[in-house]
Amino acid sequence: MRDHVARELKGHNILAVERFQDKTRWMVEFSVLRPRTAYGTPSDETRLFLDEDGYQAVLASQKRRDIKIKRYARVIEGHILDFKPKKKRHP
Question: For the whole prediction, is pTM greater than 0.90?
Answer without folding.
Answer: no
